[in-house]
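Can't paste images in this forum, so I'm doing it all in text. The chain is below; anyone willing to post the predicted structure tokens underneath?
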Amino acid sequence: MRPELLLHGIDTLQCSYFLRPHGHSGIDFAGLTVEREKLRQSKERESKLINLGGVDFLLSPHGSPLGFPLVLNNQDFRIEMGEYNNPPFFVTFRSQALWRDGAPALHQKFLEWAARLVFRPYKPESLTRVDFAFDYLLDNIDFDEDFFVSYSNKDSQHRENGKIQTFTFGRSDIVLRVYDKVAEIKQESDKVWFYDLWEREDNVWRIEWQVRKQPLKRFGIATLNDLEGQPGDLLRYLAEQHDTLRVPSGDGNRSRWPLHPLWQDLHERIRELKSLGVYRVVDEAPVLSARKMRIGIAMYGYLKQLAAIRCIQQGKELISIDDAQETLKYTVNKLHDPLSWRIDVQKRIKSFHLGQW
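Text version of the structure:
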């Protein structure tokens, strides 16, 4: 039976933008740096909502590990920038935005935002990382790390409760990960909107190559236009030469082992690709529901602690959940300030809309 491909596209994209102001800059770098320092020195150290070029962002209280003094985040981008950095802008396209709108549309959206701030390109953008993803329905995992043949010298695997969840090959310019995407969503990323794209919530494994600047350039992929027009040669190299999944045989040369049916299908799919990326509308509702459930789980745990405290204070063996909720209500009402409640709730609403879950 042929493996079922549920989804394919670009899950992460990072790009350097070489822009300079033509006229008076619409970005007050000095003023933003002052605001960042205020945030850094504050007790809460929360991001601050700002509007720049008609777009809402959250200004981070810290610079980036890459040496950019300013970091802006919203639902589409993470923008690292500095007036004296070269390049001045380093942009990470967010996963949900990529699956919703696609890389070309987001690229144009960023350039239009920069143009409103009087910034223009003085040289083409430069891609620094692209993650290509293929999501398959796999009811049964009939392979292990010994089935893979890879150019990479380093490999690792991750197990959870004795069950394989992730195979990883490579550490630098090219990294292949084959992993249980559903488990990753539940344990790490919380990207529950993939369930709507797959139309299922189980048995989905991802084949994902993380490719950095040098191999991208080697295959003529330096800009967004290059990526849109010619990912095929790179993908064929990745899936047919750099990394393959095979079925062990008696042959001493592992590269002559027959291809695993999953990899046979992957080869066929890559050959069929005219362009990479399936653009689908991502619904915000399941993300909010999942977040609400996580908060509920946490609050239920705290409610049990509160009940235990009341039992000790009152010399009782047990109190009901209703009594514990009344105790919580009484405690919260003592702390409640209507003004700060209004401000903080509205702030969190905006943060959610800007992708800060």
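The radius of gyration is 24 Å. Residues 275-281 have pLDDT under 50 and may be disordered.
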